Amino acid sequence: MPGSTLVRGSQIIMGLAAFLFAAGCDKDMTAPPPFTLTAKMVTDTVIARQGSIRILFNGPINHSTALDPSNFTVTNTCTGLTVAGALRFIGDTLVFSPAQALPFLTGLSVRVQGILDVYNRALPQPVIFRLRTENPPVSDVSWEPLTSPTNDFVSSVTFVDTQLGWISTFTGGVYRTDNGGVSFAAYFKNAEISSLADIRAASKDTLYMVGAPSFGGSTFSATALFRSVDGAKTFQVVFSDDPGNMFSLSLRKRTGAAAEMVMGGSRGSLAAWRYDQQKDSIARFGPVGGSVFGTMAALSPDGANAATVGLQVVSGSVLGVAYRSTDGGRSYVPVTLPAGTRLLRGLGFINNTDALLLGDTSTVLRLNTTTGAVTSLGAANGIPQTQIDATTGTAIFFLFTRAAFAPDDRNVGWIIGTSVRRVPGQADVRRGIILITRDGGQTFTRQAVLGAPDNGLGFPELRDIFVLNKSFSVVAGDAGFIAARKSDVQNFATLCSFPAGQ
Amino acid sequence: MSRRSDLPQSRASRVLRFATLVGVLTVATLFPPGARAQQVSGGDFDICDDLGSLEGNVMHLRGRPGFGTTSGSFVLVNAANDAQDCDHDGFTPGVDFTNLYVQQVTDFVNVAEPSRVISSRNFILGDFLNPLRNAFQNVVGVTVNIPVGTPAGTYRGSVTITDSVRTRGINANGELLRVDGFIVEIEVLPVGEATLLQPDTASPLDSLVIRARAGDRASGVFRIANTGNTPLTDVRVAVSDLRSESAVGIIIPSSAISASPPSFSSIAFRDTVRTTVTVSVTRGILGGRYRGTLIVQSANAPSIQVPFVLIVTSSRGIVFENNPVRNAPGVARIAFNADPGTDYKVAIYDMDGLLAYTTTGTVFAGVTVAGTPGTAANPAAGADYAVSVTWPLINGRGEGIASGTYLVIAESIVNGQRQLAQAKLIVIR
Predict the structure, then answer these.
(1) Handedness of CA A25, A26, A29, A34 (dihedral sign)
(2) Fewer Cβ atoms within 10 Å of its own Cβ: the N or the C terminal residue of chain A?
């Protein structure tokens, strides 16, 4: 039968081939071919805070050796501790998932060792991969907290150079540092002065501040400008108004000239003051009357222009109000603001003509004090906007209070204020917020404070910012908070910037 | 905290602080006519005992050290008629108060331990008292700063308000007029916190490192500091297994490590305690670094973990993972000390002296952060000081070896010196 002949022939050929192969090689037929086991990481070198780490081998693996925790260790290089997690295979890929979210910018070292393939061939040497967790939402952590001498509300801060500075507290205390804020010493406290707002230094000896004097208990509704000529050891009243409230002090000390300053606040309704040290003269603006109340005034760097802001109560609603001055704060005219402008809490001059007006619900307006032109800044300019989670009802909104620009580079400046997180049925969580601009107030980016909770964003509400120059600025706020930025490098967060638990 | 306002305070409290109440409310709208009061001369103001945050004349605040308390408020009322006179001690139409002031704030004294106080300087009024117009009320916010380190507990103090011009008087019933006050009770919340310190300095302990030789017992000392504001309770010290940092898979079990004392029922506020951790280093273990975790836990504080590193300074010949080796694992693991970046050679002979298997290699010298491999001269992070060679129980031709006793010889460089180690390995198939 032809078919049976074919089968027999093929059997003979196969048997011969098998004989020749066996005769030509005395090795075990089951022995694997030459091979070197290697591993490579298929994850990006930057992973999410609880992202998985994936390792792929170049051949089939003995799973039990790969799943042995001794053979796959992940070490947090910031703490030196092993990272707890789970190992599993997805197909041929060995996957490690951290048991809990790691801090941002945590360095990780993955060591793979002692793994066998299915032929019991070992990984010849350990393999180490290095990766890190992702960047935080705000990675510019160029602010560092200073050691505060108080946990009171720090209402203001001022420096004359990078070493000598003062802070004032809302309850009337003044503290001095002569080492750049490394330490502060209590310097002045008078029970007859309270509600201290701003303190500003004109020189190492001469300081001004605004607050409420009681004049021996004879009044509790007065306001005054105080001056010290002995470096804040003592203060004397320059002038006072009763009733009145000065909430701000904007001082300019141009080279070769005496200090000039404007104060903002109210005398029954919105008012402003200008004081010239050279002439010892006071110019008063207002009160403007009606339900209009001042919150702050500021003087341009050249002392030629000024502006003051506040609020007005209209039919139960609180709206913003602003006035501008082209004679250095001696007289003001109203500014036409965009309809519905929210309560304005503060301002700061960018340059000799333009100022940023700041207020509730992310209000940031740019005012040309010479023309009265107003431009709104918003999300496109980097101003954080109100966020509302419709499902939980959680709202995060932003109030801005102060702006300050570097005298040596008017492109560099900051806005400070408060972020409020409101959850229905819970107390508000209020925190400070810092925005920096490097293009003269066109765009802003958020900054964080090194070591502050919540990845550098969990610092207290801010009350004041003082900018000595673009390389030295200080903020102050609630709970004794003081922080400084002592160089103009954009200090983006580095590995291990964020300790565990934050 | 709201700032001062020039509004009459009854309006300012509404407009500036919240701007939520619409229009001007007089106290008449808040107090329905009730018990009849009396008209007195010179006026009177009251702090209404159950308005604002007051509950029966007591304001309850709470907070953590280093922060302000929750905000409270009290309501000053200048009654113009008996319906508005919430304390029923007297009213006078047409009298305004413009010189109210806080006459006294006492220190806030710890109820359980009166030697502990929060200074009255930490009391903060969030709003001004003046002016208090007739028939109006002022809502005045209050908070208290709790200094860092304030022990947990309940603190109590009082606040007295009077007028510097319209001085105090008495009514026909002998009740004081134009002076009133309330009690502030602050609950300072417990914050449990522990910190590990060096044994003899206040420096933080970032890792505990102990050196020992194989077979010895060695100890390390550190201190546990109570840096919170409440006693730490049920404090326990533990150490995890120590794993060799080299790829040899050797473990010193946590059972070989003890802490003395291993636990504390309590560590007092601001106190520290010394703890000694002792490791019984396994006899015959390979030299090198063994790493684990020192864990300090407490019932009321977050646990602390720092690396625990044992450096075994002695070296030994050869350590087998299993001896005898059976079929089940299918491999024999042979570990011995060797300097990073140096070459090693392993030869395995049967009892007839025939070479059954040999292999060579270079000890892993680690990898720099930049990804450059370390060298013998400059080992990088993660370098091994021991080697684990896997013998898949085959001979040089790839054939499985027979049961029997084999002699394993490892040649390596240890501490710069050539080391030749040998040991017998039994294979049972």
Answers:
(1) negative
(2) N
Residue from the list A32, A73, A245 with its beta carbon closest to the beta carbon of B6: A245
pLDDT digit string, tens, across residues B113-147: 999 999 888 887 767 788 899 999 988 888 888 88
Pairwise CB contact (< 8 Å): B362 & A125: yes
pTM over 0.90: no
Give yes or no for a contact between B151 and B269, defined as CB atoms under 8 angstroms apart: yes
Beta strand ranges found along A220-340 (DSSP E): 223-228, 236-241, 245-252, 260-267, 269-276, 281-285, 292-299, 306-314, 317-325, 333-334
Nearest CA in chain B to A316: B22
- pLDDT tens digits, A75-93: 999 999 999 999 999 988 9
Cβ-nearest to B130 among A220, A247, A478: A220
Indicate the residue of A71, A151, A153 with minimum beta-carbon distance to B66: A151
In chain B, what residues touch A84 (CB-CB under 8 Å)?
Answer: none
pLDDT digit string, tens, across residues B79-113? 999 889 988 889 999 999 988 988 999 999 999 99
A144-485: CATH, from 1.10.10.10, 2.60.40.3710, 1.25.40.80, 2.130.10.10:
2.130.10.10
Identity of residue A229:
V
β partners of residue A306: A299, A325
Q: What share of chain A is helix, strand, coil (3-state, %, to 5)?
A: 10, 45, 45
Does residue B247 surpass a pLDDT of 90? no
Instruction: Tell me the count of A-B CB pairs closer than 8 A.
Output: 151
- The C-alpha atoms of residue A158 and residue B35 are separated, in whole angstroms, by 55
Contacts of A496 in chain B (CB under 8 A): none
- ipTM of this complex: 0.70
Flag residues of chain A having pLDDT under 70: 1-34, 217, 491-493, 499-502
- Ordered structural domains, chain B, with CATH: 9-188 (2.60.40.10), 194-312 (2.60.40.10), 318-427 (2.60.40.4070)
